[in-house]
Write a structure and sequence with these properties.
Methylamine Dehydrogenase, Chain H, mainly beta, about 35% strand, six-stranded mixed beta sheet, disordered N terminus, single chain
Length: about 550
């Protein structure tokens, strides 16, 4: 994989990238002439005070609240830039919607990483794809010793999450930050490891109707790594309470404790947490010794296509892992769509792709290389990326010693997924597609969302996401699971964020509501807008134009004030 060191010229970076792309053997598409999107990952200034927007069309007056979004917003300190898109400093955004009008503000998270980098005007703290170089002001011996320091970043740039009524921004280390959802001011740095024995947690928790939160995080002990299911109670014991009362519900040993699987999220049904142990592996020895060898964290992550994928089910009430393991061929997933139980089966849907190819293509240089007039080379890189496609597994729950072997246990009508019992504790599964062939014309689908408030852990008909005809999403898609037909919002040179569904008042149908998405463009300065779509028809209702530039971000939530 490619790792670009600080100070390397762009011409030499370009040469290395061409060599890397040419060395790849697998091509999934034959796209040519993709447009330049490098401005989408450029550093911007924060907008700490609310500014008005220009509304065109109609923003429904029943929407009361704010869309909170998170993502990287600063990619350079001094003459050093980050090597990977994931590494940029967290920039929080707030689109406040009241009475059909919208205001916008943004603020950089005042993490220790941000403050230390800003004070020195250089990259002090290592990130996922960037290894911070030793301080040139230190003597040789001090610089040598600094290579033995392992400091996890607190640059929480992935998502907004909610625990006990408070909003936090999160990444995947042990640090999260409590923030004021109105002003976006950083209030408190919170360390998961002070409350439970974990070394991090995902930025995608799930919630029961009463507000109980579930999450997952790894721990690294003398006996190796463990996957942990986390439960956080819904209520606070006092004004200073944050993660008090959190507990580890269950610990699961990896197949290889020195090389646990990477996971970005997990699934949850009414009674089970669904953990997918996939063959994206983390070589802990390489990661721990990375500073000594000059390697960033992402160079310790690799794909092992010879290992099967394993589904683990954990009972939410007892905290016990179910004895039956569900296996599938090697696959990878970033985000789960939904999971629910029905007639003795657990149905789990997710967007599946070749994760590692995507991971290694999101280097900062691969975005910035587009300043050269060689769109074919960038298209060649895109063509090496598999498409993220929505698929479903059907897991039979009632496995016993009487269950017949070597026959398909999936008796659901109109389902092509299979589940074959190999032994009394092992079922091999294949997926069914939740799409038609025409979805591939839009680059597949990622950033899936549903009507979470009413249909999380329940049977559902619709899901929403971004189509990926580029390195980032370039369309919004609404998929009908029953017909496998979809509706699309797409306009030239416009790149939408993940869609967020908001339920309308007195909603009766699953898709009674609106979709919010932040639209950015690389071809016109300060032309961002908040898009509002009718979730039923997928037609535009209105947009709120924001006179600032916003980089392409990750995730967000709607904070209702109604």
């Amino acid at each position: 994989m490619t790792n670009f060191l600080f100070g390397t010229s762009r011409k030499s970076q370009f040469a290395v990238w061409i060599f890397t792309a040419a060395a790849r053997k697998t091509y999934f598409t034959k796209v040519h002439g993709l447009p330049n999107i490098s401005p989408l990952v450029s550093s911007v200034e924060e907008t700490p005070e609310p500014i008005p927007t220009t509304v065109k069309g109609t923003i429904p007056t029943w929407i009361h609240g704010s869309l909170l979004r998170n993502g990287p917003g600063k990619f350079k300190f001094g003459n050093q830039h980050y090597n990977h898109w994931f590494d940029g400093m967290a920039l929080m955004h707030r689109f406040q919607i009241e009475d059909g009008q919208v205001t916008y503000r943004s603020r950089f998270l005042r993490s220790d990483s941000y403050k230390q980098n800003s004070e020195r005007n250089r990259i002090i703290v290592s990130e996922f794809g960037t290894l911070a170089l030793p301080d040139p002001c230190k003597n040789f011996f001090q610089r040598f010793l600094s290579r033995f320091e392992i400091k996890p970043t607190d640059n929480a740039s992935v998502n907004f999450v909610k625990y006990k009524g408070d909003y936090y921004v999160s990444t995947e280390t042990n640090y999260i930050h409590r923030v004021d959802p109105d002003t976006l001011e950083s209030k408190q740095k919170v360390d998961w490891s002070k409350f439970i024995a974990v070394n991090g947690a995902t930025a995608h928790p799930h919630f029961d109707p009463d507000g109980t939160a579930y999450n997952m995080g790894n721990s690294y002990r003398n006996k190796g790594a463990f996957y942990n299911i986390i439960r956080v109670p819904p209520e606070r014991d006092g004004p200073e309470d944050n993660l008090e009362g959190a507990k580890i519900l269950c610990s699961i040993a990896p197949r290889d404790k020195s090389k646990p699987s990477y996971y970005h999220s997990f699934g949850m049904s009414e009674n089970y947490v669904v953990f997918i142990e996939q063959p994206i592996k983390m070589d802990l020895f390489k990661i721990v010794t990375g500073r000594l060898t000059g390697k960033s964290l992402n160079e310790g992550v690799y794909w092992d296509p010879n290992q099967e994928t394993t589904f683990h089910l954990i009972d939410k009430q007892t905290g016990k892992e179910m004895p039956v393991k569900y296996h599938a061929k090697a696959l990878s997933t970033f985000h789960q769509i939904n999971a629910f139980e029905q007639n003795g089966f657990l149905l789990d849907g997710q967007a599946i792709n070749n994760f590692l190819v995507h991971l290694h293509n999101f280097t900062y240089c691969n975005f910035q290389i587009l300043i050269f007039p060689v769109p074919l080379s960038f298209s060649q890189m895109y063509n090496t990326m598999s498409r993220p496609l929505p698929r479903r597994f059907v897991l039979p729950l009632n496995i016993s010693s009487e269950t017949p072997l070597e026959q398909n246990l999936n008796t659901r009508p109109d389902s092509t997924a299979t589940a074959v019992c190999r032994t009394k504790n092992q079922v091999f599964c294949t997926f069914e597609d939740l799409h038609g062939e025409d979805l591939k014309d839009y680059g597949g689908l990622e950033f899936p969302h549903i009507n979470y408030a009413r249909y999380n852990t329940k049977p559902y008909k619709y899901y929403y996401g971004c189509g990926f005809r580029h390195l980032v999403g370039d369309s919004l898609i609404k998929m009908d699971l029953e017909s496998k037909k979809f509706k699309v919002w797409r306009q030239p040179d416009l790149y939408p964020s993940e869609p967020v569904f908001i339920l309308s008042p007195n909603a009766e149908k699953e898709d009674d509501g609106v979709i919010l998405s932040v639209i950015i463009t690389p071809v016109k300065d300060k032309s961002t807008f908040l898009l509002v779509l009718d979730a039923k028809t997928f037609e535009e209702l209105g947009r709120a134009e924001v006179p600032v530039n916003i980089p392409y971000g990750f995730h967000g939530v709607f904070n209702s004030s109604a």
